[in-house]
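This week, study the protein below.
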Amino acid sequence: MSKISVVVSVYNEELSIREFYKVAQPILEKCHWDYELIFVNDGSVDKSYSILCELAKTNKKVRVVNFSRNFGHEAAMIAGIDYASGDGIVCMDADLQHPPESIPQIIQKFEEGYDVVSMIRSSREDGGFIKKITSSLFYKVLNCLSPIKFENNASDFFALSRQVADVLRKEYREKVRYLRGFVQSVGFNKTTLEYTARSRVAGESHYNLSKLIKFSMTTLCSFSDMPLRLGMYTGGFVGLCGLILMIYTIVCKIAFDTPVGYATIIVTLCFMFAIVLLVIGIIGQYISVLFSEIKNRPIYIVKNVVNSDETLKEDTYEE
């Protein structure tokens, strides 16, 4: 019998975990595929880990991968993929914004021969106007700058076959990651399913504006080198502006015997310095990515793995 592995990232979700399990477990039991439910505890500081252990004791198909500290959502999903043993793997969040009701549809897509299923948000119940605009703008900018074209409104809710998971385990081990981008860029037979992102069942989102900006910059650096070429383009543009200003100054001096004013010089200098600092900032972002890769530290460290009433010995995994 085929097996579906459901990977759930958990970070301070003590108010959501039981509700998620209450909704997801009956759906998985009704599926004609066997299942395993892998919760990755990403260094939660609340009661999330103890609640997960309780669930693991009541259901042998529940596994808990416990990190030594918080490594981030992307690392948690990678760890879940590394530990999954299913023929198909579904990655989702514990707050029920990603509906477990979509799992049977995902299994059907696997049976139709697809290897990658990208879940596309058709709408979101808690999504305000600003979130919709920023999300749409992000994908438009990314698709303009990157040679790889991504599905608009794709999320961290996705599914992949065992073959694609093996590729991610062996080849895509960057320290600075955009996992949903990796999933869409590996090729294979791909399809999409739409879903409505519901409101969080409890708690608040762990992403704030600064984290989203940092995430966007990291994503652009991971999939495009176009920003680096901006230095050349802006340099040419500034040089052209300087040439035009020089000609304008000479013409004014010859024709009207009046040099360009002080204000013009100040504005020009400010503009040029702004361009220089922008390019330096872009280069710095790429250097930061390179520095993270060169250090070659582990993506995550597993403190222990709980599988039903069995606790494996503590170990450290470096990828």
In short: Confidence is low (pLDDT under 50) at residues 308-319. The radius of gyration is 25 Å. The first strand starts at residue 3 and ends at 10. Residues 226-295 form one domain.
